[in-house]
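# step 3/5: fold
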Amino acid sequence: MWEAVLTRRLYETCVRFSPRCLLHGFPQPVKESPMTRDEINKEIEVLTAEIRTLSYSSTKEAAEKILHLQRRRRELRAQLEAAES
């Protein structure tokens, strides 16, 4: 199982809960090139939609995921603002 390629969501779950993943980790994907403004805007839209969907859940996991997504959205907005200035 550990040799299989992990999807992003499975990877995030694995890192959060598995001692083996925490100990050994998995390589992070390498970004080939910087994101374009359109890609950043699209990613922000996707994150916003996922945050909205998760907001209907009252589980601790959903709250943690929302915080993670909001942090990522703030990072992307900061990148967008930095590129415009």
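# step 4/5: annotate
The helical segments are 8-17, 19-24, 37-54, 60-84.
# step 5/5: archive (pending)
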